Amino acid sequence: MKSVANRIEEIKSNGYQLNFDAVINSAFENYKKIALYAGLMLFVFMVFFGLIASTALISFVGIDNLNPENIKQYSPENLTGIPLLIYMAINIFVSVLIAPFLSGFYKMADCAKKDIEFHVSTMFEYYKSPYLMEICLATFVLLLFNSGLSMLFETNGYAIIGAIIGALISFFSFLTVPLIVFGKLGAIAAIKSSFIIIYKKPLTLLALVIIAIIGALVGFIGCCIGIFFTIPFLYSMYYTVYNEIIGYESDSELVL
Fold first, then answer.
1. What are 185's strand-pairing partners?
2. Among 9, 20, 77, 229, which has the highest number of CB atoms less than 10 A from its own CB?
């Protein structure tokens, strides 16, 4: 069996084939298997995280000062200098902290694909070594780079350009986590490989991502709580794209 690293080299040289309709159908079938369980897990997590965030906000601002006017002054667009850097640091820290949990949706999608039973513990699978360090490192590098560019363009009056570049970075790196947890690549190798893969078929993959985002946002229709049960479609799509392109897992150690 070829390693994922060798598969990436093949893709770099020869590209790959991707059946658009097959990816959508496979992603939807996978999503149906995880929608309810994944949605409930996401809902519980967001409620728990919301309580912690609210407690931290009350402790920082004070319950007497907890009004829209006072809270508005702490919004990113009103921050500059050190406060803005602190905000960015907190945002990156929180994102890095929850990244392994969100990566658990890929594990759940993988279990569904293989008809393996999954449990609550499945969502915390990637808090185990060696995945934890690599997922956190990849998240940190991408967010640091993204936030740095956004701040650079915004301070020079080009916020829209910064937002576009940030969106492009997010798009070209969306296969990073699957390449870490299934391909056994290290953080930097996974980021580079994600860019290589997506660069070969950017329009096709962009169309698939847009469909996945639209599918995820359908949950806002009617009752907004439905978003918790449609967001997993995004992870099913990303997992399916990875599975269709790479096609197999590597049994090798992490390639750093």
1. 255
2. 229
Question: What is the chain's alpha carbon radius of gyration, rounded to the nearest angstrom?
Answer: 19
User: Is 50 exceeded by the pLDDT of residue 250?
Assistant: no
> Three-class SS string for the chain?
CCCHHHHHHHHHHHCCCCCHHHHHHHHHHHHHHHHHHHHHHHHHHHHHHHHHHHHHHHHHHCHHHCCHHHHHCCCHHHCCHHHHHHHHHHHHHHHHHHHHHHHHHHHHHHHHHCCCCCCHHHHHHHHCCCHHHHHHHHHHHHHHHHHHHHHHHHHCCCHHHHHHHHHHHHHHCCCHHHHHHCCCECHHHHHHHHHHHHHHCHHHHHHHHHHHHHHHHHHHCCCHHHHHHHCHHHHHHHHHHHHHHHCCCCCCCCEC
Q: Is residue 13 part of a domain?
A: no
Q: What is the pLDDT, as a whole number, of residue 132?
A: 94
214 backbone dihedrals φ, ψ, rounded to 5°: -60, -45
The domain of 230 spans: 19-246
Place of tokens 């916020």: 159
Is residue 253 domain-resident?
A: no
For the stretch 27-47, pLDDT in tens is 999 999 999 999 999 888 888
pLDDT in tens, 120-163: 889 999 998 789 999 999 999 999 988 888 777 877 777 788 88
Give residue 161's pLDDT: 87
Does 202 fall in a domain?
yes
Position 10 in a domain: no
